[in-house]
Amino acid sequence: MNHVVWAYSENEGVSNEVASAATDIVKGSPGEVVVVEIAQPRAGIRAPGGRLLLKGPSSADSPGVVAEALYRAAKELQPAAVLVGATRNGRETASRLAAKLRVGCMSEIYNLSSDGQSLLGERNVFAGKVVAKVTCALPAVATVKVGSYPRMESAPGGTRELDVGGVDSPIRVASREKKAVGAVDLKSAKVIVSAGRGVKKKEDLAMLEDLAREMHGALGCSRPLSSDLGWLPEEHHIGLTGVSVKPDLYLAVGISGQLQHTAGMKDSKVVASINTDKDAPMFQASDYGIVGDLYQVVPALRRALSAHG
Amino acid sequence: MRIAVCVKHSVDETELKLDPSGRPQLAGAAGKMSTFDKNAVEEGLRLKAAHTGEVVIFMVGTPASKKTLKEALAMGADRGALVLADPLAVDSLRTADMLAAAIRKGGPFDVVLCSEGSSDTYSGQVPPMLGELLGVPYAGYARKVVVNGQTARIERSLEDSVEILDVPVPFAASVVSEINEPRYPTLIQIMQAGKKPVEEMDGEELAPPGAYRQASVVSMSAQPSTRKHVMIEGSPDEAAAKLVDALMKEGVLSK
Ligand SMILES: Cc1cc2nc3c(=O)[nH]c(=O)nc-3n(C[C@H](O)[C@H](O)[C@H](O)COP(=O)(O)OP(=O)(O)OC[C@H]3O[C@@H](n4cnc5c(N)ncnc54)[C@H](O)[C@@H]3O)c2cc1C
Ligand SMILES: Nc1ncnc2c1ncn2[C@@H]1O[C@H](COP(=O)(O)O)[C@@H](O)[C@H]1O
């Protein structure tokens, strides 16, 4: 075994985050980080230590196929660790790879490091109430929490190719469609107004959308509004199973503040919340709280903002 | 159709107490059925209703986990298998090893269902590992599963796309909560659940670890929080004005 760390994600931006995580592990020595690509090289990939292009599979669309390609390549080249971005497909890829290699797999890790013998890192457990330090002997696989590393910016080094042979999948893809994507990018928004079940009907979201616009921010939500009620696209939901955000201001409106939600916004700079229930856990996760009915407080907030001009 | 559903007895994060140094008090901590596993059980029951057959619950857990196994039986599952091991002391691959061995022993199954992630650790690792170990096609994050003879049409819900797959039977899948609305057992079902058969087996005997070195937890501590907790009083207009002032001072409101 050598000390080379592989970084992979089917998502270009996430791949550049994973490359940063891998560089941290090898203490900034770029020659030991290899960014893996499957079937086709991608233009936006940053790989200062060079890339490894696995030829054979026809695409990188199926986690089962990617896992098999990575497995064949890892058997031959013996990387010390394989890091995969913890997207939905990435979690599957990493888990299947670890099962094939019979090595340990750590999930949703940040603050990664290595002492040469094992991989160390941190992750959120018990819905984000607790941080666990975890470890795994090398060789190991880990998924890297999306959004926990900056995207690598330096130019790619050279490309090496490896033919791993064709990989068949028993699964046929009948169709693949983009979900309707909202007009907002929550990850880059400086202000996020976030709506929860305290909002009574879909039409009332317009009022919060207006507030978000007046604050030069974006509208997010708790999981029930997107997944269960379908009032907003999935990409809008913040939390453990949705996006993690760190805006300057996070304004939670009618959100109870269950741990699974706060897990996705706890790194915000300032948090304010509006809730009718003075005991709502959201207040524990807030710098400023107003106990009140959002249907009164939100219009008042809009008046106060326009008074400041 | 024979359907296996994997159900985890998870630590109840809402009840979990931290000691003064911030370490979670896991000994004797309250547990509950992992939230999304209810959707996996529900989906198993719906497949059974559509195709006839049997739903068997598989769990890696301690004797205290039986409560959750009984709950799945009360929802309508037919039988259960409890693989004895501490789910907090075995990692994802060991858990999957044990589930795979128990499912093989009780098999063959046409469908193996899990949820996308357990509510205490939310790793999302056990289901794909299980698919891999069982050597069957696997589809994760399913929001719709329709079995039609020898193939299933499965809708996978990804971050920004939906995939529709044709998957040959037998297969394994994990489900997301949108897939269905889990039923509540009736009082009679709860009473009858006690009489349904549950087979117990030892995890380490069933699936010896061999040379495998598992991932482990070194230490745990409270999530740090440094919030100010200022409660703003007054009428809606007064409170709103004070909040806007405070946010201006924080420098987080741009004009
Ligand atoms: C494994 C797992 C993962 C999960 N992942 C996520 C996730 O990523 N993101 C997420 O958000 N959730 C997630 N959840 C769900 C989470 O546990 C909560 O159920 C959810 O966050 C609750 O949403 P809510 O606060 O909008 O609704 P509720 O909990 O119903 O809270 C509504 C709040 O609105 C207040 N309210 C009511 N009326 C008004 C009014 N007129 N004015 C002001 N306030 C009012 C109420 O007092 C209450 O506090 C997950 C759950 C599990 C099990
Ligand atoms: N100890 C366990 N017993 C039974 N099923 C489990 C266990 N751990 C995980 N699973 C299954 O795998 C899913 C995902 O778990 P995880 O990989 O821990 O997030 C759970 O929702 C269960 O369906």
Can you walk me through this structure?
The complex is a heterodimer of chains A (309) and B (255). With 309 residues, chain A is an alpha/beta fold. In chain A, 25% of the residues lie in helices and 28% in strands. Chain A starts with a strand and ends with a helix. Chain B is an alpha/beta fold and 255 residues long. Chain B has 7 helices and 13 strands. The mean pLDDT of chain B is 95. At the A-B interface, helix 2, helix 3, strand 5, strand 6 and strand 7 of A face helix 3, helix 4, strand 7, strand 9 and strand 12 of B. Strand 10 (172-178) of chain A pairs antiparallel with strand 9 (161-168) of chain B. Flavin-adenine dinucleotide (FAD) sits between chains A (196-198, 222-224, 237-242, 254-256, 258, 260-261, 264, 274-277, 280, 293-295) and B (35-36, 117, 119, 122).
Which descriptors apply to this entry?
heterodimer, A: 309 residues, alpha/beta, Rossmann fold, 2 domains, five-stranded parallel beta sheet, 7 helices, B: 255 residues, nine-stranded mixed beta sheet, 13 strands, 29% helix, binds flavin-adenine dinucleotide, binds adenosine monophosphate
Secondary structural class of chain B: alpha/beta
> Could you tell me the mean pLDDT of chain B?
95
Q: Which whole number gives the mean pLDDT of chain A?
A: 92
| Helix proportion of chain A | 25-40%
State the helix count of chain B.
Answer: 7
Condensed summary:
The complex is a heterodimer of chains A (309) and B (255). In chain A, 25% of the residues lie in helices and 28% in strands.
What topology emerges from the helices and strands here?
The complex is a heterodimer of chains A (309) and B (255).
Chain A: E1 5-8, H1 12-25, E2 33-38, E3 51-55, H2 63-77, E4 81-85, H3 88-101, E5 105-114, E6 118-125, E7 130-137, E8 140-144, E9 159-163, E10 172-178, E11 191-195, H4 205-214, E12 218-221, H5 223-228, E13 249-253, H6 259-262, E14 270-275, E15 288-291, H7 294-308
Parallel strand pairs in A: 1-2, 1-4, 2-3, 3-9, 4-8, 5-8, 11-12, 11-13, 13-14, 14-15
Antiparallel strand pairs in A: 5-6, 6-7
Helix pairs in contact in A: 2-3, 4-7
Chain B: E1 2-6, E2 9-11, E3 31-33, H1 37-51, E4 54-61, H2 66-75, E5 79-84, H3 92-106, E6 111-115, H4 126-134, E7 138-148, E8 151-157, E9 161-168, E10 171-175, H5 187-193, E11 198-202, H6 203-206, E12 216-222, E13 230-232, H7 236-250
Parallel strand pairs in B: 1-4, 1-6, 4-5, 5-11, 6-10, 7-10
Antiparallel strand pairs in B: 2-3, 7-8, 8-9
Helix pairs in contact in B: 2-5, 3-4
Adenosine monophosphate (AMP) binds at residues 6-8, 34, 36-37, 40, 58-61, 87, 92, 95, 99, 114-115, 117-118, 121-127 of chain B.
